[in-house]
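## tool: complex_structure
## caller: assistant
## args:
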Amino acid sequence: MTAFWTKIRPKFWKAPIDLLDKGQNGSYYRRIWQVVVVGIATVSLLPLIAMTLMNINQYQNALKAEIIFPVARLVSNTKRTLAHFLNERKAALTFIAQDPALHCCLSDQQRLNRIFRRLKSSYGGFADLGVIDSHGLQRAYVGPYDLKGKNYHEQAWFREVMIKGVYISDVFFGFRQIPHFVIAVKYEHDDGDFYILRATIDTDRFTSLIRSLDVRPFSDAFLINAQGILQTPSRFHGGILEKINIPVPQGSVKTEVQEIRDHSGEPIIMGHAYIEGSPFIFMVIKYEKELMKNVGRLRKDLIVFLGMSVALILLVVLGAATHLVNRIYEADLKRTAALHQIEHTNKMASIGRLAAGVAHEINNPLAIINEKGGLLKDLLLLSENFPERDKLVGLVDSIISSVDRCSTITHRLLGFARHIDVRSETIDLGHLIQEVLGFIGKEAEYRNIAVSTHVPDDIPLIQSDRGRLQQIFLNVINNAFAAVDDGGKIDILLEYKAPDKVLVTVRDNGHGIPPENLETIFEPFFSTKGEQGTGLGLSITYGLVQKLGGQISVESEVNKGTSFTIILPVKS
Amino acid sequence: MMPPKLLLVDDEEDFISALAERLRIRNYDTRIVTSGEAALLEIQKERPDIVLLDLKMPGMGGMETLMNIKAKDSSIDVIMVTGSVNSQVGEEALKAGATAHMVKPFDIENLMDKLQDIRKKRGLD
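## result:
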């Protein structure tokens, strides 16, 4: 994990230095990065999430509305059908009751038989038919039982039909154990006497009618009475004549649709309507869970889509922010390095000017010493009898040779200063390297470092900038000096790569550079010398080599040594 | 053959006085002056064959003096002496008419070689 992080960690994350002393280290860039990431992510993700949630919610509401409307329509249509079914039978009975032939002879069994037959063939569902007089006595009866002579005077329905003129019973199991209900109508004579026509109707007509609604799976349609007793079987809420396990809706003949919870707490959509003139309530129940399956699927799709979008956006935001901040960091790094290089160049130029001034001023007294010494020698040589003449001549010679040495130094200083200005000239690389070694030759002697230079004869003169070349070789050779122990070995090899390149390899047998540092060695501010190094030497060298149109590369093995190879164009 | 007449021009009197003596020892008729202005006057008084001229002098500098000398008498050879190894300065002096260019401090033998060259050139003329 740590290794992975180290691999993907952006460069700025552990920016090592305070660029321009503005506190622009890693935390500064991390802060910019965080602000960018959080800012962009917030403005892009929040609307997306809000839109998705709104979308889900809206769809859910729309779907619910779409469910409620058909339920309401189904309920009201079915209610009408059922009411029509009842009214039809009620009307048929009323019509029969008004038959004058019945009036005269209530107990005419033959006639009732005929009527029953016709009734059965015209309207289905009739199970029996009876005529009851005003005393409650069944005067005639057609049906599967022998109920003639049965007295209903004490029964509640008889009283109700006496008062209301019509009566529809709840569903009940009769002797036949078949669910059915009763319709009774009263016919009143002009003299106040009356009789009642009573028919039993099987509920299977109801049941098949409701079943024919073909409510989808997980939906239910049935009749109940005002006490919540099921009048037709329900798929999920109990058998016939059982008490329903959801609250009985209160209401009118108007169709109503409600969202409620059933006994187990499941949300359901319940449509109901009282059927006029009957004790029946028609109900349709749909399970929301099933209905909302689509919503669930949509929600899942949307959430997957949202998740993917969020991931993609985050990826893009992270990538873009990282790229952006890295660019800023690299730009800062480059700018700082450039400033440092300018500073460095300025410093070198100042040192150069100072050196030139000093050298120039020293040259004059040197010339005086040289001439006075020379004159002294001339005079000594002229006077043949001067005592200890030879010894004095020797002394003067050593003065003059010292002046020579001094003038070599001042010439070198002047040369160094002169090369601060950029210009191209013809250069003998071997000679130039010898000059550079002249600066550090003493250190090699003190530390007993063997410096060998190999210059093949075919090395051409090159067109380049002397000062920059000096600086490049001085830096690289100085690095080699720093890398080797006392008594170490440094080889400088020149090689002509025809037709237009010269290779200079500076190889040492020092400590070497660990592989992880090799990549960053030319980056500005990279240093292994701690406080002593600016970390600019090799980066400046790199810049100088590039300016001269060359390339620099490094190979190293820990504890074996390092070799820097500089490829220079013959003509820059 | 008459010894060639030399005129040394340098503000460092210690330098030219010693140099002049050494040249006299070597059989050159040598005079010295310590400024460009004095050099021009001296040339008017008596024409030298060769002038050894310091580049950097207070008052009239070496280049200006060189040009004045050349304007007066272009046949006088001038050896420009500088304290700088800057080859650019030497080149400029040569362009302006100097015969040779030397950097201080120099070996007298080098100077003798240069004088010899000039004499040879003249002898050939």
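## assistant note: Chain B has one domain: 5-124. Strands of chain B lie at 5-9, 29-33, 50-54, 77-82, 100-103. Handing back to user.
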